[in-house]
């Protein structure tokens, strides 16, 4: 009998619409949920804060949120001496991408050839997660405020189908703009995430939407037969930010 076929690593992306890193104990974030998907007792977690220019305050929020959990923490910086990215990131169990200016973040990543490293990590089973810019970057397109003066569609990495819009409830112009862009054909089918809601993908398929808040939702915005529709998706509520891993 031939050797047993190796099981293919599970490719996971967890895209968070907003409020992904919290230090408020009364409102648990997604830390426990994300860590549980790594299926490791003491997972290695690396933070990428490129979208805020490696702002110290953003990095501090990450450490404050994750230090409360059993895991090994690190971050990579692009605006000081940058480590060997392939060596650092392929050794992780979770890579978490923060929010900020998506367009600038992707430009820096491409200069450092980071997308190919992140894709290798994803394909090897490293859990990719992120909030806002760190959520939309994985899709074909994202709705972003990277430019002053209004929201625009932005071509992104394209590993996940369609488009994504974060902060769908907390920034009022996002709902109107997303529906208008979809209606004009400037955006494909778009996953719209309210703050406190995350979309969990396995491969390129949406497995589930989860939320740390009692009333946060996720929607699919589409244009069909000349009309734009907004369909609410089922959302599973997390208890204390946790749920059993896949």
What does this molecule look like?
- The chain has one domain (12-237): 3-Layer(aba) Sandwich (Rossmann fold), CATH 3.40.50.880.
- Helix 2 (56-66) links the parallel strand 2 (44-48) and strand 3.
- Helix content is 24%, strand content 30%.
- The model has no long low-confidence stretch (mean pLDDT 91).
- The chain is α/β, with parallel strands linked by helices.
- The chain has helices at residues 31-37, 56-66, 85-89, 102-111, 114-123, 133-136, 172-183; strands at residues 12-16, 44-48, 72-76, 94-97, 127-131, 139-144, 152-155, 160-165, 190-193, 197-202, 205-211, 218-224, 227-232, 235-237.
Distance between the termini: 30 Å
Give, in spatial order, the strands making up the sheet with the most strands: 3-2-4-5-1-10-11-14
Low-confidence stretches: none
**How much strand content do the residues show?**
25-35%
The major sheet is characterized as: 8 strands, mixed
Q: Give the CATH superfamily.
A: Class I glutamine amidotransferase (GATase) domain
The CATH C-level class name? Alpha Beta
> Radius of gyration, Cα only, in angstroms?
17 Å
Q: Identify the CATH architecture.
A: 3-Layer(aba) Sandwich
Number of domains: 1
Q: What's the order of the H and E elements? A: EHEHEHEHHEHEEEHEEEEEE
- The total count of helices amounts to 7
What is the averaged pLDDT score?
Answer: 91
Overall strand count: 14
Query: What class, by secondary structure content?
Result: alpha/beta
């Amino acid at each position: 009998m031939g050797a047993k076929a190796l099981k293919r690593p599970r490719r996971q992306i967890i895209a968070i619409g907003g409020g992904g890193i919290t230090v408020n104990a009364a409102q648990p974030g997604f830390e426990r949920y994300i860590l549980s998907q790594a299926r490791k007792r003491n997972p290695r977690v690396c933070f990428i804060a490129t979208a805020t220019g490696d702002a110290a305050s953003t990095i501090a929020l990450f450490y404050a949120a994750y230090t409360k959990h059993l895991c090994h923490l690190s971050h990579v910086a692009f605006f000081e001496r940058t480590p060997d990215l392939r060596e650092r990131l392929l050794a992780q169990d979770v890579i978490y991408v923060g929010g900020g200016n998506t367009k600038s973040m992707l430009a820096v990543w491409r200069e450092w050839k980071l997308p190919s490293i992140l894709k290798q990590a994803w394909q090897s089973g490293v859990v990719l997660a992120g909030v806002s810019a760190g959520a939309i970057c994985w899709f074909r397109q994202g709705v972003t405020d990277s430019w002053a003066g209004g929201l625009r569609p932005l071509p992104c990495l394209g590993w996940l189908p369609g488009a994504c819009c974060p902060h769908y409830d907390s920034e009022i112009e996002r709902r109107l703009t997303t529906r208008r862009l979809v209606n004009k054909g400037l955006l494909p089918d778009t996953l719209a995430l309210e703050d406190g809601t995350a979309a969990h993908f396995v491969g390129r398929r949406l497995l589930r939407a989860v939320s740390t808040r009692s009333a946060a939702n996720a929607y699919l915005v589409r244009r069909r037969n000349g009309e734009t529709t907004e369909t609410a998706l089922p959302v599973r509520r997390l208890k204390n930010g946790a749920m059993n891993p896949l």
